[in-house]
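By way of example, we now present a protein record of this kind:
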Amino acid sequence: MHNFGYRSGHYCVENVPVHEISESCATPFYCYSRTAIETAYDAYANAFSKHDTLICYAVKANSNQAVISILAARGSGADVVSEGELRRALLAGIPASKIVYSGVAKTVPEIEFALNNDILLFNVESEPELQQINSVAVRLGKIARIAFRINPDIDAGTHEKISTGKSENKFGIPWQAARAAYADAAKLPGIEVRGIDIHIGSQIMKLGPFEQAFERIADLVGQLRADGHTITSIDLGGGLGINYNTESDLAPTAEQYAALVLKHLGRLDCRLIFEPGRSIVGNSGVLVSQVIYVKHGSKSTFLIIDAAMNDFLRPSMYNAYHHIVGEKDSGGEDVLYDVVGPVCETGDTFARSRKLGKQEAGDLVIVEGAGAYGAVMASTYNTRRLVPEVLVEKDGFRIVRPRPDYDSIIGMDTP
């Protein structure tokens, strides 16, 4: 996280101290670095610069319009999983010709909207979905370009809740059934087969599972072409992990990943499509919170902050590790804290037995690596207002999503 750290004793995002942002935007808030987003995207673009490649940012990782528009300006496409995400991508400036539509349960209205906007490709997850897309396309007098998402039955070695490439997962068509699925698709009047798609999971920290998947896909491309199908694109999904724990994590680089991809698939004369999300925005953002109380229990010292599990779900849902630091570079002796939020659930815990510099009520703390699956998964549980989002651009910042007021939240209900 090169664009985050201490300057003159205070934590900064690019050149802006977070305590200055907190004077304009009350805590808790998410804070993103434009430079970090651009640098992460450029790492992929540069790594694949010599091959026909389309990078489709996975909008589900962080769907803020400011984030998507930054990537659109870099030439990014989008990977979407709902009509709402598709609308966001289009409004942020990503052309439909660079949008792929994934997801296991595309509805008829969503398919209609995507076809009417002439998106690049549907990643088809099942044979019933194929039939549904064909039916809608024929009714609208359109042709749906598709790739089948293939489930290669490979364990990516990641958390069970973000594993997508094993046979017991709900995603994709079993690789053993792929040839029959493509044969069926070739007979449908509203379908044009363009390629093949694979995605084996998220936060993958080793290249081995990717290599197994790429080998299987390369073989399958050969079989499908022998069967007479035209395969011009290979969508390899996303899933490349990031370094959440700076003491133990070491994710592969975009360059290492690209070398592996091109080793196995570069010879197939296909356009390569990628769907990175977390690896672009994960370490491009932080969550800034304020200490409300320091509570001394019989066994633990609790650092109670104003951010909660409804604001940032990953620690509660995945037992995810996130580095947490104080806003001031204390340089003194560390204290062991359980960092917790205000929601009345034990699961509202960000970290246990975590060393931080001594903190007091009113101090700011920063949860790092919060740019992906943070704000997008937030809720108004306990009728807490959604967390605002701030974008830092070198020496300045702007609020790119304000905190809603209570009237707007409560007013959504009808007495």
Remarks:
- The two ends are 47 Å apart (CA to CA).
- The chain has two domains: 4-32+282-410, 103-274.
